[in-house]
UniProtKB/TrEMBL annotation, chains A, B:
Species name: Brachybacterium halotolerans
InterPro entries assigned: ATPase_NBD, ROK, Tscrpt_reg_IclR_N, WH-like_DNA-bd_sf, WH_DNA-bd_sf
Coiled-coil regions listed in the entry: none
Sequence ranges assigned to domain HTH iclR-type in this UniProt record: 15-57
PANTHER family: BIFUNCTIONAL UDP-N-ACETYLGLUCOSAMINE 2-EPIMERASE_N-ACETYLMANNOSAMINE KINASE, ROK (REPRESSOR, ORF, KINASE) FAMILY
A Pfam entry, by short name: HTH_IclR
Protein name per its UniProtKB record: ROK family transcriptional regulator
Membership in a protein family: Belongs to the ROK (NagC/XylR) family.
Length: 398, 398
DNA sequence: GTAGATTAGTTGTTGCATCTTACTAAACAG
DNA sequence: CTGTTTAGTAAGATGCAACAACTAATCTAC
């Protein structure tokens, strides 16, 4: 490691520490947290303020001594743009460094019927619109750190092409390459990531530095593994894809063609089928059917369905926890609202099979994050280069 | 990070790079590999040589240009001591920085019948003996970097106490604390780790920086997860304990009391039972029975046994790979010799269930490491502080 | 056999990031 | 108004790695 990397590392450390702190820190507090000295922190913070990445609040008197100058990530000085493509449309959103949403827009579009090129055009339009709206109040257009798209499928981490997205009917679509060609995105950093992996970033804001297993029901079932605040990548970028873990060898047929996958039991489609609902029923109806016996009237059927789902998830989670030796599980997406019902069954199954129960309780938590999880996560991911290497961003922006 | 840490980091980088290089590197080669400049490497290497951590070989002419001075980890300048406790005895071994064994000794002891205190006494005696033998040729006693014990059970990473070791009949034994009290080990760094997790370190020497899943059959079945050359810890230090992954809900009864654990299918005990051998039969007999139809004469039974074992391992491995998104599996311990037989069944099962097959082939490899795997791994782990912070060791030794 | 090319490694200097020490600033307590 | 406490700054010292230029040792070519 070279000495210039040291500075970059410490800049990043300061910025991240400020970002993840529950409340604004003073320079002195930042020095204490990072282990750097006060003069060093002062210099680094000065640079971050100069670049518009950090802002000072009004001095705050707390007890005796000189009042502290609270520091916080600057708001409204730059844009990170998130995109989300689903079967029914494209959404777009611009945030600043704090994650505050400055503008949003969306377009309805049947992504299954329409060719990918139409979707990519829509993305271009939305990015352009959102850039305009977000910069409307500012004297000059805000600089864009990057654009990241959330896609419901497997993405090649090397070039951001979509290897397969069953929900969109896509396979081998060079999404990022095409998006980069759009005139509206000329010169911008463009990324793409799986929607589940991006969702977890939003969750991570609530749990900085923690380790947990994240399970998200959306159309299928996906998730992520978070170790010490970092999302595990894996060799092909799909670590934590729990949907196709085997929960019962030779069991139910999954749409992937295999047998006994978790997804065959708890995808939105499988849940509706098990709950006796039509494929067009809403999530609310589904939750209602599972949560209240009155939903379908079939009390026995309900508890049986809940048992099947709970045991399937429990088995998958227990296996994941045995491999990773973690003790926190976060349920999100359509698994969060039904978490209250299936939680106990999951806990029971996990307690039965997970080794970690011998060391302490395993907590199954429900995410209370907002609905546009993946979209926010995408914007958050677009910001990542700034957090990782603030010095490079400063040099680029200047 | 402070600037003094930078130097420590670079010292460590140089030492590790030299250690993991397949053949000696010159200063210039080391500079190229580490990304540091030649002058910087020269300075760092000078310090490492001065401290007896690196040695120069005779200059070597290779083609045109000035001959290089090959550098390699110094041999015979310090001691790392490994211990291994099994049901039948205690083994001990001293290596230098290169991993070369300088001395070894063992004691037969029925660790199940004898109280832990007897085992700890034996450890003390063996360490003392091994230190003497290893330093016999040297003009002065060699400094000991540390002692690490391999134990067949779950270890508290905080204090090195044995939480449970079914094979020894131990539970809640403050092993490290007691061992540290022995006069023979006064002043030494003492560590303890699970034997499977230490075994993988020996494997890692062959695969520096790689990522793989490591499965080791010993008495039970354990393993480890290696991500980028680092062994995953987990919250309680037992990540990668694959033995109790569920491979068939409600399946065979495991000695842990649960049902359907991998270990219930492929522990040495379970294998013997399935192969129709007595509990006292040797590993050779077992391999023979599985490898050759002539072993027991029951050809049908054999292929059925192999199928059951292979599918059990395959299911567990596929699930682990789905969580981690890796594509290499290494079989070790008693799984290595039978690997040729069960390998195809495992591959087949994994190919059927693992998502990563869609991106490329998954390789199931057999470890060809020596038998005293865990013991060597223990010594290797005792060395770790020197590799991680050579500067501190130099300061301590001086 | 001498000049040139090539690779290895060292020397001295420079630049840069952090640390140390000592200071000023701004509040409160008595 | 003086002492105490906490925040933040200034100036100089320290220490590390980078850079450029050098020496060292070998081979090749004419």
């Amino acid at each position: 490691m070279q000495s210039t990397h040291l500075r970059e590392h410490n800049l990043s450390l300061c910025l991240r520490t400020l970002s993840s702190a529950p409340e604004p820190l003073s320079r002195a507090g930042l020095a204490a947290r990072t282990g750097l000295t006060k003069p060093t922190v002062s210099k680094l913070v000065e640079e971050l303020i100069g670049a518009g990445l950090v802002a000072e609040d009004a001095p705050l008197i707390h007890g005796t001594g000189r009042p502290m100058v609270p520091l916080r990530p600057a708001s409204g000085t730059l844009l990170a743009i998130g995109l989300e493509v689903t079967a029914v449309g494209v959404s777009c959103l611009a945030t600043d460094l704090t994650g505050e949403v400055l503008a949003a827009a969306d377009e309805t579009l049947d992504a299954v019927a329409a060719p990918p090129s139409r979707v990519i055009e829509a993305c271009g339009r939305l990015v352009s619109a959102v850039r305009g709206t977000a910069s409307a109040d500012a004297p000059a257009p805000l600089p864009v750190v990057g654009v990241c798209a959330a896609l419901p499928g497997r993405i090649d981490p090397a070039d951001g092409s979509v290897l397969s997205a069953p929900g969109l009917g896509w396979s081998d679509v060079p999404f990022v390459a095409r998006l980069r060609e759009r005139p509206e995105l000329a010169g911008l950093t463009v990324l793409a990531q799986n929607d589940n992996r991006l969702s977890v970033l939003t969750e991570l804001d609530q749990r900085p530095g923690q380790s947990f297993v994240y399970l998200r029901g959306h159309t299928g079932v996906g998730g992520a593994v978070v170790l010490g605040g970092r999302v595990l990548e894996g060799e092909h970028g799909w670590a934590g894809e729990f949907g196709h873990m085997v929960v019962e060898p030779g069991g139910a047929l999954c749409r992937c063609g295999r047998r006994g996958c978790l997804e065959a039991y708890v995808s939105a489609h499988a849940l509706r089928e098990r709950a006796g609902l039509g494929p067009e029923s809403s999530l609310e109806e589904l939750v209602d059917a599972l949560a209240h016996a009155s939903g379908t009237g079939r009390t026995d059927g309900r508890s049986e369905v809940i048992g099947t789902i709970g045991r399937a998830i429990g088995t998958a989670v227990a296996n994941a926890l045995n491999v990773l030796d973690l003790s926190t599980v976060v349920l999100s997406g359509h698994l969060a609202p039904i978490g209250e019902e299936i939680g106990p069954v999951i806990s029971e199954t996990v307690a039965e099979h997970a080794l970690a129960t011998e060391a302490g309780p395993i907590t199954i938590e429900r995410s209370d994050a907002p609905a546009d999880l993946a979209l926010r996560g995408a914007a958050r991911w677009a910001l990542e280069p700034v957090f990782a290497a603030p010095g490079q961003w400063i040099a680029r922006a200047a």
